[in-house]
Amino acid sequence: MRKSNQAIYLLNTFSPFNLKRLGIASSLARSKRPQLSKFTPGFTLRSSLSSTHPPPSPPEDPLPTPPPGFNSPVDTLPPPKKTGSSIIFPWLHGNQPPRIKQYPYPTANFWSSILSLLPIFIQHQLCKWLTARILTGAVSAVYFPEQFLQGVSLAARQVCESLSTPVERDDLRLMLTTRFYDRIINEVDKLESEKSKVTIDIPKIYGINIRDIWVTLGPRKAYSEKNREYRILNWMTLTLAIRKAQDDNINESRAKVAKSFSDGINFKVDVEIDAEVTYTLKSAKDEILIDDRSRRPVLFRFESPHFEPSDRIYYKVSSDLIEEPPVNWNWRVGDIDYLLEIEDLENEAREEKDLNQLED
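^ 17374_t:CDS:1, sequence as received from the core. Prediction below:
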């Protein structure tokens, strides 16, 4: 059995999801793992984009494209049934628009004046290609994106199952980030106080697509509110924390970027799942408040830990081992359908507005 097939076999037969844990990490069946430092020396956006290796491509949707004017049975379903109850749960219905229609990606001109002149769409595609290379270099091309996406479909179903009544709090604590868990449990407590019941299921998945890969570089303290040592640079889905210094020549800038790579790293992967989703909300008297069945894209955000320093993403293994063990960490779901992301963007806009009013 080839090593690549063996790795896929291990993922399918021993998945942490079966143990109610959201671990998409799999065995990296290679004698040498590509070191993160290979991207560090002299890293610049321009030199990285000159590589001839194409970016990883998502799997194709197995469904044929319907003819114009065709309405599937799912599209013609009646709207969700609602009553005058005040019970709500933050799950999108099939007839609701996405929380963020067009993401306001930050643009920057700190690397190249030519880059800032490119259209937003091209900048986004370039950044997505770059961040995919960084993530692939950290976890190996054997694992990402193929094995990662295999785990995503199973993870999404298990999260929905644990969100359904009776809610599996212990399982959610393992599968969700702390912040997202607290946000969801707050809504679950409201449902349970009124003895309402929610059921969420994904009976069929048609396709999976990687929408964004967010990479954060630098130590965690650089992103705290008390930070005074680092300058935060944002471009699309890439964020760097660079220590402030008076010398700002080219060589010094490259050294600071390389230092940012080695000081710490964090990944977030936004995955759109084209799926048939059923969502039912019932009152304490089993009155159907919402009964929604629709095919729509569901966005799941998977987050890694913040590795500090960056090489902690790997196991420390002895040199006499033939093959390295799997990475010693698990992905966790940090958001669904931009529930937290839209709240963050609204808070940032509100704070910026208040600051502008104070300056006026």
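The chain has one domain: 3-60+76-311+322-359.
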